[in-house]
Amino acid sequence: MKGRFLIALIATGVGATVAVTTGTLLEGAARAAESVVKAQRQVQSRGAAVPQPDTSSPNWKKLSDDVGVMIRDDERLGLRGRLYVSVEGVWLPVATDGLADVLPLVPVN
């Protein structure tokens, strides 16, 4: 009798744990999907708000019709570069060479 009660108690505990874990995972997946949608909307809405590189600068190197690099010589950090990709006519920075590239030290229009 005591053994059956313990088995039922353990089964109830395991079932409750599985139910709570499943609910938590499903809620987390829904939040992750919502986060991805928000990020995509932000990128689309800020498309033109991104500072555009000065493509007439001698430091601008066009690699193809939709890829270019802005190169600069930083007195503290040496030669630096930022890779840009053109998406629907807007140049978006996709790779930076370091923390200094996040700062607005690159010539922009």
Descriptive notes:
The chain has one helix at residues 2-45; strands spanning 60-64, 67-74, 78-87, 90-96. By secondary structure, the chain is an alpha+beta fold. It folds into 2 domains: 2-45; 48-101, no CATH class. Strands 1-2-3-4 form a 4-stranded antiparallel β-sheet, with no helix packed on it. The longest helix is centred in the first third of the chain and has 44 residues, at 2-45. The radius of gyration is 26 Å and the shape is elongated. It starts with a helix and ends in a 13-residue tail after the last strand.
> Which spans of ≥5 residues are poorly predicted at pLDDT below 50?
none
Radius of gyration: 26 Å
How much strand? 25-35%
- The helix count comes to 1
What is the overall pLDDT average?
Answer: 76
Q: How are the strands of the biggest sheet laid out side by side?
A: 1-2-3-4
What's the β-strand tally? 4
What's the helix-strand series?
Answer: HEEEE
Helix content: 40-55%
**What's the N-to-C terminus distance?**
82 Å
Spatial shape: elongated
